[in-house]
Amino acid sequence: MSEKNKYSAEDIKVLEGLEGVRRRPSMYVGSTGKDGSVTVIDNGRGIPVDAHPTYKVSAMEIALTKLHAGGKFEKEAYQISGGLHGVGVSVVNALSIKLIAKVKRDGNIYQQEYSIGKPLYSVKNVGKCGRETGTEITFFPDTDIFSTTEFDFVILKKRLQEIAFLNPVKIILRDEKQNKEDTFYYKGGLYEFIEHINKTKTVLHKPIYSKKEVNGTIIEITIQYTDGYNENIFGFVNTINTTEGGTHVSGFKTALTRAINDFVIKKNLLKGEKITGDDTREGLTAIVNIKMREPQFEGQTKTKLGNSEMKGIVDSMVYVFLTEYFEENPSIANKIAQKVITSVKARDAAKKARDLVRRKNLVGFSGLPGKLADCSSKKVEKTELYIVEGDSAGGSAKMGRDKEFQAILPMKGKTINVEKANPTKALSHEGITNLITAIGTGIRENFDITKLRYSKIVILSDADVDGQHITTLLLTFFYRYLPQLIENGNLYIAVPPLYRVRKKKDYYVYNEDELKKLIEKSEKSEVTRFKGLSEMNPQQLWETTLDPNKRILKKVMIEDAVLADETFSMLMGDIVGPRRKFIEVNADIAEVDM
Q1: Cys bridge to 165: 2, 67, 193, 206, which one at CB 3.0-4.6 A?
Q2: Is 324 a catalytic residue?
Q3: 289 neighbors 221 (Cβ within 8 angstroms)
Q4: Cα 117 to chain center, whole Å?
């Protein structure tokens, strides 16, 4: 190993603290829900095991037991890294009832075990490994900290797949409980990534790709337009998904608008109207991937890049590239220009529809939808809006609710599929207009969280196929037009019961397994299958789905923006094949839980 690339105990720096991790785990790991044990193995250089010059114990022990300790504070040890604070593995250790660390390095295998972040013995040599190098970490999450300890294979799969698209590495994910395994390796990188994202959409051209290094920073972008109406720009910095964007995404947007606008003006394709940024991004899928030495993120969760210099760097690079690309590829440039021009012409009608909705919101109480049965309380933090399928069920819900804090908005029939409808048509739909008006925040660029009228917005539909379809249509609307409510934790799905089991008293059952167990306890029981919400009287609806002390609500969350976009496009788009496969695979375990 060269002197420049050496990685030893001297490279492990400590910034100090671990008890605080156990007291406030969510500050470090986000949510606390996982299970079993996980083993992570790599073939890197291996954590250094020699004695630390200051702390006089193994550098591996320092890295795994002290917060703000690691090799990433030394510029020569790591050129580029997403980890900035040296808390990752030490936090995992602090929240694990048991952790085993093994390192292959210098021909030997070294091992140390820990419990709740404390070493059980000193690092010891446990064998030989030849010329192999790498680190193996096995950990068992502490059940005193985590409410559930089951790892979700699907979420892990999507995140590891994302990492493999962004980096030229092979990643193997193995689930030994269910005997499943997936391997991720993509030579095409971002080119394959954007094709994967758009696989359920109708695209207008092949992906446009560029990569450039500027002062030690690698900037990589790819763009592709579809025939849809939704904008999807995904930003990454050192493999971290910056879901809130940041300076790199801002620079990309500015350059894209300038380059397209210049092309349209030069070719004299549009007269009398001005192109906006929104016009240039309608139907766009783009990935902006940055690898840089010292990223500055806004917030602990690293969802937004703050380095001010990156806006100008990305802007300049993307503008020069796209200007040259459009000149050299006029047919693709013309397709993009025509897509943008169509957006310009439709924008005025869509703006009128949005303004109409906004004006309704400004009217106040008298401007609320006629079918809305509002609550009496004006304390937003305590109020709830139930979006109920059908007038009949809506009537029962109105009678069964607590009028003080629960509002009911019946939805007549299935709402419009906003995935396939242009904004003008979607925002002219009565059900959508009523829903936006009732919520009060406005949508997209007019969104204002301070105008929110209810702290909980709950989708309540029948527990059958049609009901699930209605739920999916509404979820698609919220994801495309009001994603801020999902991010803010305001959107929920109610879970109505499937059965009523009558013994000496009534029991409400929510799934087949629960029914089977209840019947096995006593065969003398009367079972009633609820075909829909309308079959419940107001009292039953209150007891099963409206009473805060008894009901089941699922909070809607977006764990992964890329996965969410892919899923909604697949379920609600025009391409049938992937949707059929998804239904076949998930038919037995289908439930909306995002």
Answers
A1: 193
A2: no
A3: yes
A4: 30
Catalytic site includes residue 466: yes
Both tokens of residue 2?
A: 């060269």
Indicate the SS3 state at residue 408.
strand
61, 279, 282, 389: the active-site residue = 389
Active site residue 448: no
Q: Mean pLDDT in the chain?
A: 83
At residue 362's C-alpha, the angle toward residues 361 and 364, to 5°, is 80
Distance separating alpha carbons of residues 565 and 46, to the nearest angstrom: 37
pLDDT at 408: 95
Active-site residue among 355, 466, 574, 593? 466
Global pTM exceeds 0.90: no
Closest CA to 241 of 563, 490, 567, 485: 563
| Per-residue model confidence as pLDDT tens digits over 291-300 | 998 888 886 6
Q: How far apart are CA 202 and CA 204, in angstroms?
A: 7
Q: E strands within 61-150?
A: 69-70, 96-105, 108-115, 118-119, 124-128, 134-141, 148-149
With CA atoms as reference, report the closest residue to 535 among 473, 459, 472, 464: 464
Please provide residue 83's backbone torsions phi and psi, each rounded to the nearest 5 degrees. -80, 125
**Does 3.40.50.1000 match the CATH number of domain 190-345?**
no
* DSSP-derived 3-state class of residue 430: helix
* Helix, strand, coil shares, percent, the chain, to 5: 40, 20, 40
Residues near 38 by beta carbon (within 8 Å), at least 6 away in sequence? 138, 139, 151
**What is the rounded distance in angstroms from the CA atom of residue 354 to the CA atom of residue 427?**
7
Assign domain 9-150 to a CATH class: alpha beta
Give 340-383 pLDDT, tens digit per residue.
998 888 776 666 666 655 555 544 444 677 789 999 998 999 99
464 flagged as catalytic: yes
Collapsing DSSP states into helix, strand and coil, what is residue 442?
A: coil
Outline which parts of the chain fall under CATH 3.40.50.670: 364-496+532-589
CATH of domain 364-496+532-589: 3.40.50.670
Count of other CB atoms within 10 angstroms of residue 212: 16
Nearest to 592 by CA among 516, 483, 491, 522: 491
Give me the catalytic one of 464, 547, 574, 591: 464
Identity of the residue numbered 11: D
Q: Which of 220, 278, 462, 566 is catalytic?
A: 462
What distance in Å separates the CA atoms of residue 30 and residue 223, rounded to the nearest whole number?
Answer: 31
